[in-house]
Design a protein that fits this description.
Structural class: alpha+beta
Strand order of the largest sheet: 1-2-3-5-4
CATH architecture of the domain at 40-137: Beta Barrel
Strand content: 15-25%
Number of strands: 6
Order of helices and strands: HHEEEEEEHH
Largest sheet: 5 strands, mixed, barrel
Length: 194
């Protein structure tokens, strides 16, 4: 009887262990941010760009969220008046998918090709006075973003060769000659009349 009870306990324990192991294996693996407890100084050192800016628009795809940001002040990096910042769409991928359009943030971003990337552990957060002051203590007061390069007008000749002054003046000279001939003809006809 004692052996039967020990066998039953062993089976129950083995079943519970198997259920726990299976449930743990089936649960999706959660990706943690690389630097969850980084200081503002560490975040600033890791970032290629640190700036304040307002979310102008937000586009979401299957794996990422792309923010168009109107840049206000640049503390680090070389930015224009607008920046494109991407982040993973999922929180578990250390993304910042819920930044609000029209809200101002202090952005910590790294370069990702021709755009910027940010994550939940990068330091990007609402631009509070105390947080902005911490960055200014490290990097100094921000500067205005670099205005876009002015577009230079280029002129392209319509024809393959350049027109000379005589070619340009020829139609005018022809009109003057026709006008003079007309006057001579009118004058000659006027003399013939009795």
């Amino acid at each position: 009887m004692l052996t039967l009870r020990l066998l039953a306990c062993a089976l129950v324990s083995a079943g519970a262990f198997a259920a726990t192991t299976t449930a743990t294996a089936a649960a999706p693996e959660r990706t943690a941010c690389e630097h969850p407890d980084a200081t503002v100084e560490q975040q600033t050192m890791r970032a290629d760009a640190v700036f304040t800016g307002t979310v102008a628009s937000r586009e979401q795809s299957r794996s990422k969220v792309t923010y168009a940001v109107d840049v206000d002040l640049v503390n680090k990096g070389d930015l224009g008046e607008e920046a494109t910042v991407v982040t993973p769409r999922q929180d578990r991928a250390c993304g910042l998918p819920d930044l609000q359009k029209g809200s101002e943030y202090l952005w910590f971003a790294t370069t990702d090709g021709d755009r910027l990337a940010t994550t939940a552990d990068s330091g990007t957060a609402p631009a509070t006075a105390s947080r902005v002051q911490q960055v200014e203590d490290l990097l100094g007061t921000g500067t205005s973003p670099t205005p876009p390069e002015p577009v230079e007008a280029t002129f392209t000749p319509v024809a393959g060769e350049r027109a000379s002054v005589t070619r340009l003046a020829a139609p005018g000279v022809a009109l003057v000659l026709v006008g003079l001939l007309g006057l001579v003809l009118v004058a000659a006809l006027g003399r013939r009349r009795p």
